[in-house]
Amino acid sequence: MYMVIRKYTKVRSVADAARRAKSGVGEILRQSPGFKSYSVLDAGDGAGIAVMIFDDRESANAANAKILAFVQASLPDLDLGVPEITTGEVLVHIEPNGSSGIK
What we know:
By secondary structure, the protein is of the alpha+beta class. The chain has 2 helices and 6 strands. The strands form 2 sheets. The protein has a 4-stranded antiparallel β-sheet with strand order 2-3-1-4, with helices on one face. Strands 5-6 form a two-stranded antiparallel ribbon. Strand 2 and strand 3 form a beta hairpin. Helix 1 packs across helix 2 (about 55-75). The N and C termini lie close together (about 10 Å).
C-alpha cells in the first residue's frame, strides 16, 4: 500500500474546504484504480490534512495529478496555497477485524 498525506496550513475554513472537496475529490478517487481510502482532518489553526491510501505509487501519482488540478480549478476562492506533501509505502496497517499487514 502507498500513502499520500497533503497538509495545507493556511485554510480559512477546513470544514468548508472538506465539504466542497468531498464530492469532487471523492468522485475522482472513486474512479481511480488502486484507491483504498481518503480522510480529511482539521488540525486546528487553519491546518487541514488529507490522507489517501492506494494500492501502489503509480495509482497514487495518477490520482494526485487529477486532484491537484481539481483543487486549483474548483476551489481557488479558498486560497489553499501549496500543500506540504508526504508520500511513502505503508509499513504497518492494522484493521479492526484483527488483520494486519507488516512489511
